[in-house]
Amino acid sequence: MSKHIVNVSDADFEEEVLKASGPVLVDFWAPWCGPCKMLGPVLEELAEDLAGRVKVAKVNVDENKESAGRFGVMSIPTMIIFKGGKDAATLVGFMSKEQLKEKIEEQL
Amino acid sequence: MAQKDPYDIIIVGGGPAGYTAAQYAARAEKKVLVLEKMLSGGQIASSEMLENYPGFPEGIGGIEFGQLLEKQARRFGAQISMEEVQGVSLTGGSFKVQTKKNTYTSGAIIAAAGVNPRYLGVPGEEEFRGRGVSYCATCDGAFFRDKDVVVVGGGDAALEEAVYLTRFARKVALVHRRDRFRAVKYLQEKAYANEKVTLYLSHILLEIGGQNKVERVVLKDLARGEEKVVPTDGVFFYVGNNPNTSFLGDLPLKKNSGGFLEAGDNMETDIPGLFVAGDIRVTPLRQVVTAVSDGAVAAVSAVKYLEEGE
Question: Which residue of A has its CA nearest to B50?
């Protein structure tokens, strides 16, 4: 795991995501999902590019059902951009780095 | 827009077909550029395991396979750039390839852009994507534990995934517009034998409804002409694939009724210098093994085309 990505669980979702000072991109994923695995390296590069501007977090939905359920995640990968504790944008499915960056920039 | 140095061959698509073409063309000492919009490997990268590729008796992970293809193409000198091709045009004897940021030129093109899952385009399909509408049973099946789901389609993928979903779901309704399935016999037998699967043959899905997530679908029984509302929590689509040909715009290329590109035995098209390879073309089998074969043939043909023109 890249040093720029934090693994978040149900226990620290509030602290790490909802109470974060800046925008947070949360990737809801699971190990058995092919497109989620494809997204892994894309997010690592993105997290590095956006370091200091956007926090990138990953939530394993298998182990953290509460967070996934709370935000209505029913398909993975789903990425939600949180701003000030609110879900500002939801992105479903694999995206290229370019597409994802564009969507994030819209929210900054 | 940056104008880059000309290439001998530009390959659109970084999957098994594209990278094999790149490797063969680069080994023939051509200046090669591969343009990939998403991630190396293409469709196979979303597959957990590639089980039927010769030489890998234990199988190989889809993502890993994609990375190996890329590495091998690079080793022989192919250049690779992660960009989506927006258009290809012909000027004089050379091709102009447009991406968002760059314009490239080349003497030949190999279109190996593959396919994407087809959307049915029914009301609610886009609205509820990620809220009950899914195109990946392996990804999303677990969200439907003890719930009811609908699977739309009649091919191998539809039946295989319908049976897979019975691991989680309470009931799986399999909806297919024809009166029989296209899938191979043994998958049909597996579906028939599964008590959780209900068949809706000669039925079409008209719309998906619900408040914030999928709650019901409207089906039409084509035999009786009746419509019925079926409560459900999820809808999985397996209605085939569309070839990714939009970047070719209105170039005069022969296509079949599904939009797949027609090519000759040497992967050539009616446009001199434009070759095709892999799932994008009309072919009896769409597998990794056929894609790499197409890629090799297309590369050799493109090299020959360029050398004859010199």
Answer: A34
Which residues of chain A make contact with B135, given a CB cutoff of 8 A? 93
Tokens of A81: 């951009």
The answer to whether residues B68 and B15 touch, using CB atoms and an 8 Å cutoff, is no
CB spacing of A42 vs B100 below 8 angstroms? no
Q: Partners of B41 in the beta sheet?
A: none
- Residue B139 is nearest to which of A35, A42, A98, comparing CB atoms? A35
**Residue B243 in tokens:** 């070839």
Beta strands across the sheet bearing B216-221:
B203-209, B216-221, B226-231
Q: CA geometry: angle at B290 spanning B296 and B262, to 5°?
A: 85
pLDDT-derived band at A80 (thresholds 50, 70, 90) equals very high
Average pLDDT, chain A: 92
Pick the CATH number of A5-101 from 3.40.30.10, 3.40.1170.60, 3.10.20.310, 2.40.30.60: 3.40.30.10
* The model's pTM: 0.81
Instruction: Please answer whether residues B291 and B17 qualify as being in contact, where contact means their C-beta atoms are separated by less than 8 angstroms.
Output: yes
A71 in contact with chain B, both atoms CB, cutoff 8 A: no
Residue A96 pLDDT:
86
Domains assigned to chain B: 2-117+241-309 (3.50.50.60), 133-237 (3.50.50.60)
What's the rounded mean pLDDT across residues B215-230? 97
Give the mutation candidate from A28, A39, A74 for the B interface (greatest B CB count, under 10 A).
A74
Per the listing, tokens 């027609």 go with B262
Mean pLDDT of A31-41: 86
Which tens digits make up the pLDDT trace of B30-63?
999 999 998 889 888 877 778 889 999 999 988 8
Cα maximum dimension of chain A = 32
Q: Do B63 and A97 touch (CB under 8 A)?
A: no
ipTM: 0.82
Respond yes or no: is residue A36 known to be catalytic: yes
First to last CA, chain A: 25
Q: d(Cα A86, Cα B291) in Å, to the nearest integer?
A: 45
- Tell me whether residue B140 is one of the annotated catalytic residues: yes
